[in-house]
Each structure stands twice: as structure tokens, then as C-alpha cells.
Amino acid sequence: MRITPTSPIDAIPDPTATTGNELGKSRETRRRILEASTACIAEKGYDNFSTGAVAARAGLTRPAMLYHFSSRLELLTATIHFLARRRIELFEQAMRALPSVDSYKGQYFRAKAAEAAWSQLETPYFWAFAELSLAARTDPDLETIVKPALEIFDKARRGVTDQIFPQESFDMADFSLARDVVRFLSEGVVMQENFIHDREQRTAALKHFLHMLVASTPGAVFLQAIVDDWNKQQGLTDGTVDQPATAAIEAEDCSPDP
Fold it and tell me: The whole model's pTM is what?
């Protein structure tokens, strides 16, 4: 898929970009290095990360790799930006691939977004991203790189759904809540899944919970009630809940009308 100039991904620096004086193959080489860096971090962790290991994985000599990324810090910075862009790119591709059919209702799109978010957690891009995020908690130098990249990633990921989803398919407040619940619950579950007793059954149950939350009428009503109560606590409403509007949420399913 060709990412449009207005894509939210453009907010994240492209570490594979080349200048006008460089050969076209330089971009491919940089991407190969960053894919190798991703694999090394995902498989071995941040503590075992080294430029030598990345060069070997990419099939390059260390000097050849350092020509593109001159230091460990520069390579780490480029890798973080690469990971953020790849995760946004994959999510955007999945969302743009959905058919534009009027009979597909809002909860269909919400369900597909949840599925796409969960499927990303099975990629090395997520695991490398997670490894670096956790390491940044106790590494001040790494934090200075990771924190701003995470903030850009969060805004860009939100921007994808805001840009692609039909505006009439969701209420912004409850959709934002659902989006955060899906992201942080699913990421937390996957990061703990190797330590969970009866993992497959419990993970399947949590997936079902998320699906029902974002793709069923009871879930929509529940989310709206939470948003109403939150707004009330924050003083954003006069304390009354628009019951008719809440009760009138359209009954939807996750498939097109016959």
C-alpha cells in the first residue's frame, strides 16, 4: 500500500530515508539493518543488543553498517522510529484494506480495529518495541529517545482511526476509551502470557471480552455509561445523563446487512 502524504505516519521520522547524493540501494540496506536490529532486540533483549550482532544478522561488516548508522545510539534511535512507523503502517494497511460498504456498520470497524491491534502483538515489531519501552524505564539515556517516540506513536495511531473510520461510526469519547482498553489490555496480556496458568483459555476469554466490548450493542451502552459518568465527575456535564440517546444506540452486529 502507498502511504499518502497526509498519513499520520509522516509525524515519525523515516530512518530509511536517503539524501539526493546516495544510491537507491542505500534505502534497502538501511531497511535490512533495521529489520536485523528489530530481530536482535525481539529475540535477545535490549541488554544483549550490539552493533556487531546487528551487522552479522544483516549480512554486513560492522564498518559497512556504521556507514549508515555511525553509533549504537544512532542505530537505537533509528530502530525506535522504524518500529513506530512499521506498527502504524501495518495498522493503517489493515484499516484501509476494509471494504467501503455502507451496510458495514460502526461496530464492524471497531471489531476489525481490535483484531488488527491484537494481530500486531504477534510480530517482532511489537516485541522489540516492548523491550525498548521497558528498558527505558530504568535507562535515562534510552528514555530520552523512547519517550518522545512513544508519544508520537500514540498520536499517530489515534490519527489513523480518526482519519480512516467513518465519522458517523463512533462517538469520539467512548471510541477513545475503547481504543485505549483494547490496546493496553491486549499488550499487557501478551507480555504476560508465558507466565499465565491455563494461558490459551484465559487469553481466548479476554479476546472475547474485548470483542464484545467494542463490537456489540451491550458493550456500546456500557462504554457510553462510563463516559457519561466520567464527564460528570470531571464537571463536563450538568450531572444529567441523556438516557434516550444512550438507549437509542443502534443494534449492530459485525457483518454487513444482507
Answer: 0.75
User: Rounded to the nearest 5°, which phi and psi values hold at 254?
Assistant: -105, 25
User: Rounded CA gap, 122 and 1, in Å?
Assistant: 21
Residue that has been written with the C-alpha cell 544478522 in this structure? 57
Residue 241: φ, ψ to 5°: -105, 135
Hey, how many other C-beta atoms are within 10 angstroms of the C-beta on 257? 10
Q: Which three cell numbers stand for residue 11?
A: 509525524
Euclidean distance between CA atoms 120 and 143, whole angstroms: 23
Every domain of the chain and the residues it spans: 8-247
Cell match 487469553: residue? Answer: 203
Residue 38 to residue 35: CA distance in whole angstroms: 5
Give me the residue label for grid cell 538501511.
30
**pLDDT tens digits, one per residue of 140-151:** 988 988 888 888
Q: What is the CA radius of gyration of the chain?
A: 21
Which backbone phi and psi does 5 adopt, to 5 degrees?
-60, -20
> Which tens digit of pLDDT belongs to each residue from 150-200?
888 888 877 777 777 666 655 666 677 777 888 888 888 777 766 667 778
Q: Which residues contact 153 (CB under 8 A, 6 or more apart)?
A: 12, 84, 87, 88
Residues in the chain: 258
Separation of alpha carbons 248 and 88, rounded Å: 34
Helix, strand, or coil here: 17?
Answer: coil
DSSP label at 138?
Answer: T
Helix and strand element counts for the chain (H, E): 11, 0
Q: Which CATH architecture has domain 8-247?
A: Orthogonal Bundle (1.10)
